[in-house]
Design a protein that fits this description.
The complex is a heterotrimer of chains A (489), B (453) and C (95). Chain A has 15 helices and 11 strands. By secondary structure, chain A is of the alpha/beta class. In chain A, helix 2 (22-40) runs antiparallel to helix 3 and helix 7 (220-230) runs antiparallel to helix 15 (463-476). The longest helix of chain A is centred in the last third of the chain and has 21 residues, at 372-392. In chain B, the strands form 5 sheets. A 4-stranded antiparallel beta sheet of chain B has the order 2-6-7-11. Classes of the chains: A alpha/beta (489), B alpha+beta (453), C alpha+beta (95). The B-C interface holds B 1, 7-13, 39, 41, 87-89, 98, 106-107, 110-111, 113-121, 237-240, 242, 245, 247, 250, 252, 254-258 and C 13-14, 16, 53-54, 57-65, 73, 76, 79, 84, 86-95.
Chain lengths: 489, 453, 95
């Protein structure tokens, strides 16, 4: 078996036990990236020499007998909206095309401390706005299962890299499904933690009350391992929760027996691909056979999720992205006349279509005369959405449903119709609105070749149960071990 | 920088509550922050974290003395927000040095170089914005309000209120209305008021400008104007800007804040007595003249020094006289403030006791004070070392008086010829002989006796 | 909600987003269509609902008033598109 296809925890143990050197792992990863990434375009920036230097330092420290971290020697890919000191961080936007942060995000610090080898920064929808990674100023990333299709988004670069084995694991961010949906479309595991579980310090903001960083891996245990490494309160993020970080590995193998699972009926309605529906129903059967009990539940405001989300997220985004004004960093349009023209030209040239659209939408929703009817109203619906989950979790331990209504769609298929693209998030946005944790795990292949994802949603700060259900399912199936064949470019 | 997040400084929050309490405001049991969105080069996120609909505090007041008349200025609200950066305009100073506009936005003069500079060093620093009701009618009232406000804020330890450092800044709204009219006219806001003097000048100028506009049949436009201290006038600041729409919404990067009654009481209990109340108490309970009480209470340190002294020796008038007279003179000459004065209250009280108890003369006392400041020694030691105890017995003074009379025949003659003023010259001579130690009334009596009344 | 070109211009100006004539037309149709979808929110009665801003009701998060090492000024200026010494340079602010 190719070393890079090992689960992160096994690879880590091999490096820690000096059966393989970190240097060797890093080199293999970089070679594979060099070979396959011209085809997939998952990476925007590589840390070639830096990753090798880090690997050498790690090998030296292990040789000195220092205890290796929980991710020692694991090659990891970082979504390009996570600030990395000295390494270009673009958010796949022209406006940050030359931006080099002078600090590391908290999660980056934590991964370094855990011994991870950070091999590069990955492509994404610009400022994480999109569901296909087509909205990148640097061109789309392709789905390793079918290069005529999208990998999903917005964390499509990390997801494609992990699915194709260019990296063993990676980090994405999830504002309305941006970890879970691409994980579903690429046949990997994607975990969106509870809002506040992971520090957002150093994550370039899209929508501050929805954004959350999480791991993208090839199995559930690795997701737990990565979450363990990045979770915890951070004094630099006021919204990081001051709750204890549990041992996410403790109950991982506890199985499904005795768990009460809810099946939200609104997640199986019109618009869902029949193959997706049957794969998810089969997965629920697997969990039932593994000892879980199931019951139908209702989340009545699900159908309003997209509408409310596409007010709240753009509203926050319009404010968060106002700082890209050509003054302190990033692009400044050349040859403008005066301040106003400098602002307007810089932003016109710097932002892509989808980002501009959401800035317009969000600015409108907050503007005088429309605030109550749009923004305020959406926040009230948001309350109802959260109430729905609270009610459901009164009688069940987790919810199971599809992650995406459809498998990977063709490049360009939805690119001209923003509303159709927004509707791709129909099963993922409500979780962000409520701040709850969720995971997507592979549960089938549509037409025998396009991955389908099973989504498991949990109570606030109960990632342990989410991971336990996911692992219980994974133990009974081998969908997670299917790997795409990627031809060289 | 992208990715960076705000966290509220606890001291800023507590000082904000303290200031609000000192201004008799109601403290909100629940407060939150909002984003005020607008583009300006000094605003690094293109929004300012401020408070919109639920400010930290509301509805307070401050009593102001305007030339002996009491004026109560109502406080509309006091809320926390973050400071912006500073805009600089390169051409203002000779030699091309960047000149500071001092205020939270806008510059003073158009530049020829076609650019402005931004310094973000102070951006994100917490500040408290205190907004009054339209309760002041003249520039003088505004001046006195700001003076009183500064005193309260300094007193409560909230701020040093140093305008030069920017720790107190002021934007002033002005409107005019016809005599007898009940409704306020359209107001303008003036920025860049870097000193109390500018405040009064700018207000007077702006009111006159508005009157002129109205009398010419024009209309006052609600706008932000900038005081230009060089030209001595206000001018519109954002002339080309459309109407503002700040698109306030709750700041998602900060959590809300709950202020319990117990917390409010804890902060209230730690508040010192405010200057106006303290001044009244000094007059009523300690019998100080109002003028002295006011001077003593302007500076909290001075007032507390005074109170420490009075606690040791119940002689408020004498102590006030020393503090406002010789002690202040010593401080001025040596550039000391009350905190750095080496003579602490217990030492000053010893000196006052020596003088009041007639052990040394007032004249000697002044020199002893100087010596105390310079050497740090206590009064008794100085008196002992230098033999400065007052000579107050006729037996000791008699020979000295005789000697002086013998040596000053002309003064004696003058006195006897009816020039009573000659007596004080003779007293002076005795004092000189005794290096100020002689008890002056006794000397006078002895001289009069010997000169035959 | 009918979005007209004047509204597009107004919103774009608030957002300091330059528009080409094509952009303006595109936004008229796109925003109209998206808002028509969003208006399904109006079919819900949410009069009694408390607006939800933060997913969780965290309260009173402070940092201590302690002096911390600040990053060197050069870090803040490193990405400046235009600068003079320790200042960011911008087009003249007032006419």
């Amino acid at each position: 078996m190719e070393m890079l296809d090992l689960p992160a925890h096994e690879l880590r143990d091999a490096v820690a036990g000096r059966r393989v050197s970190a240097r060797e792992v890093a080199e293999r990863s970089l070679v594979r990236i060099e070979r396959l990434d011209p085809r997939l375009k998952a990476f925007l920036t590589l840390r070639k020499d830096a990753a090798l230097r880090d690997a050498d330092a790690l090998d030296a420290s292990i040789a000195r007998g220092e205890p290796p971290g929980p991710l020692a020697g694991v090659p990891m890919a970082l979504k390009d909206n996570l600030c990395t000191r000295g390494v270009r961080t673009t958010c796949a936007s022209r406006i940050l095309g030359n931006f080099v942060p002078t600090y590391d995000a908290t999660v980056v610090e934590k991964l370094r401390a855990a011994g991870a080898l950070l091999v590069g920064k990955t492509n994404m929808d610009e400022f994480a706005m999109g569901s296909s990674t087509e909205n990148s100023a640097f061109g789309p990333t392709l789905n390793p299962w079918d290069v005529t299709r999208v990998p999903g988004g917005s964390s499509g670069g990390t997801t494609a890299a992990v699915a194709a084995g260019l990296a063993t694991a990676g980090l994405g961010s999830d504002t309305g499904g941006s970890i879970r949906q691409p994980a579903s479309l690429c046949g990997v595991v994607g975990l969106k933690p509870t809002y506040g579980r992971v520090s957002r310090f150093g994550l370039v903001a899209f929508a501050s009350s929805l954004d959350q960083i999480g791991p993208i891996t090839r199995n559930v245990r690795d997701a737990a391992l990565c979450l363990q490494a990045i979770a915890g309160p951070d004094p630099r993020d006021s919204t990081s929760a001051s709750v204890e970080t549990p041992d996410f590995l403790r109950d991982l193998e506890a199985g499904a027996k005795g768990l009460r699972l809810g099946i939200p009926k609104e997640y199986f309605g019109a618009g869902i691909d029949p193959e997706v529906a049957s794969a998810v129903e089969a997965a629920i059967d697997v969990l039932r056979r593994a000892g879980a009990t199931t019951q139908e539940v209702s989340l009545p405001h699900t159908d309003y999720g997209i509408a409310a989300y596409y007010v709240v997220a753009p509203a926050e985004a319009s404010s968060n992205l106002a700082r890209y004004d050509g003054v302190r960093y990033g692009l400044r349009a050349a040859d403008t006349r005066g301040l106003l023209s400098m602002y307007e030209e810089t932003r016109r040239q710097g932002f892509g279509r989808e980002v501009s659209r959401r800035i317009m939408l969000g600015t409108f929703a907050l503007s005088s005369g429309y605030y109550d009817a749009y923004y305020q109203k959406a926040l009230k619906v948001r309350r109802r959405i959260k109430d729905d989950f609270d009610a459901a979790f009164g009688s069940v331990d987790a919810l199971v449903c599809p992650t995406s209504p459809v498998p990977a769609f063709k490049l360009g298929e939805k690119a001209d119709d923003p509303l159709q693209m927004y509707l791709a998030d129909v099963f993922t946005v409500c979780l962000n609105m409520a701040g709850l944790p969720g995971i997507s795990v592979p549960c089938g292949l549509a037409g025998g070749k396009l991955p389908i994802g099973l989504q498991i949603l949990g109570r606030a700060f109960d990632e342990s149960t989410v991971l336990r259900v996911a692992r219980a399912y994974e133990r009974e199936t081998d969908w997670h071990s299917r790997r795409p064949e990627v031809a060289e470019a | 920088m992208p990715g960076v997040l705000p966290v509220l400084n606890r001291a800023a929050y507590e000082l904000g509550i303290r200031a609000a309490l000192a201004l008799h405001c109601e403290i909100a049991p629940f407060t939150k922050f909002d984003r005020k969105n607008y583009f300006y080069p000094d605003l690094p996120k293109a929004y300012q974290i401020s408070q919109f609909d639920i400010p930290l505090s509301r509805q307070g007041w401050l009593d102001v003395d305007v030339a002996g008349r009491a004026l109560r200025v109502r406080i509309h609200r006091a809320h926390l927000e973050e400071d912006a950066g500073k805009l600089l305009h390169p051409e203002l100073r000779e030699g091309g040095d960047p000149a500071d506009d001092g205020g939270g936005g806008g510059g003073v003069r158009a530049g020829r170089a076609g650019y402005s500079l931004v310094d973000f060093n102070r951006s994100g620093v917490p500040l408290l914005e205190i907004v009054t009701e339209p309760d002041m009618r003249t520039p003088e009232e505004a001046y006195e309000y700001l003076t009183a406000l500064k005193r309260v804020l300094q007193y409560s330890g909230v701020s040093d209120c140093d305008m030069e450092k920017g720790s107190l800044r002021c934007d002033a709204n002005v409107s005019v209305r016809p005599r007898g009219s009940e409704t306020l006219g359209t107001r303008t806001e003036t920025k860049n008021l870097n000193s109390f003097k500018f405040l009064a000048k700018a207000l007077a100028h702006e009111a006159a400008r508005q009157i002129k506009v109205l009398e010419a049949g024009g209309r006052v436009v609600q706008e932000t104007r900038l005081w230009d201290p060089i030209a001595g006038e206000t001018r519109p600041m954002r002339s080309k800007e459309e109407a503002h729409d700040y698109r306030y919404f709750p700041e998602p990067d900060l959590v809300p804040f709950v202020i319990t009654p117990a917390e409010v009481e804890r902060i209230r209990a730690a508040l010192p007595e405010m200057p106006a109340e303290r001044c009244a108490r000094f007059v009523e309970q300690l019998g100080l003249p109002p003028k002295d009480a006011e001077v003593l209470t302007t500076d909290r340190g001075l007032a507390e020094y005074f109170e420490s002294c009075v606690a040791l020796e119940n002689a408020p008038r004498a102590i006030a006289n020393w503090l406002l007279g010789d002690v202040r003179k010593e401080m001025n000459e040596r550039h000391l403030d009350i905190e750095s004065l080496p003579v602490r209250p217990e030492r000053l009280v010893e000196l006052v006791r020596l003088v009041e108890g007639a052990q040394i003369t007032r004249l000697v006392g002044k020199d002893v004070l100087t010596e105390m400041v310079v050497s740090g020694k206590d009064a008794a030691a100085i008196v002992r070392e230098k033999g400065l105890l007052q000579i107050a017995d006729a037996a000791s003074l008699g020979p000295i008086v005789d000697k002086v009379l013998g040596a000053n025949a002309k003064a004696v003659t003058d006195y006897r010829a009816g020039k009573k003023a000659a007596l004080s010259s003779l007293v002076g001579q005795v004092m000189k002989e005794t290096r100020g130690k002689a008890n002056a009334p006794l000397v006078t009596r002895l001289l009069q006796e010997k000169l035959g009344g | 909600m009918k979005v007209d070109p004047a509204l597009v211009d107004h919103v774009a100006r608030l957002a300091r987003l330059g528009l080409t004539p094509d952009d303006r037309l595109r936004y008229v149709s796109e925003l109209t269509r998206i808002l028509a979808y969003v208006e399904k929110l109006n079919t819900l009665d949410v009069a009694g609902a408390e607006p939800l801003v933060h997913p969780f009701e965290g309260r009173n998060v402070f940092r201590p008033d302690a002096v911390q090492a600040s990053p060197p000024p050069e870090d803040g200026l490193a990405n400046a598109p235009d600068r003079i010494e320790k200042f960011f340079k911008v087009p003249k602010v007032i006419e």
